[in-house]
Every structure is written in C-alpha cells, then in structure tokens.
Amino acid sequence: MRTRLALWGARLLCLLVAVPGGCSASRQWRQAERIDAAPVRVTGVVTAVEHVPKSG
What we know:
Layout: H1 2-37
C-alpha cells in the first residue's frame, strides 16, 4: 500500500513539473516565431575590431 501511494505521488509530481514546462516551451516557441516574422536589419560600417583572447 505504501509503495502504491509513493508511486502515485511520484506520478503527480512529474505531472506538476511537466505541464508548466510544456506551457513555457510553447510560449517561447510562439515568441520566436514572432521574432522571425519581423527581423531587424542593420546597415552600417565596422569602425573597429577588438581582439578577444581565447584564454578564459
């Protein structure tokens, strides 16, 4: 009986984590589509190139 209750608890916890995560991923996907629909175009001239060392 105790393991059955623990199993139901684990399932409920997974569901409570998965549903908001799926909604968040869906919202981010829609926002990305809106960004792709109206890209920003920039025209200009490069005035300086800065050297960035590879060591971190």
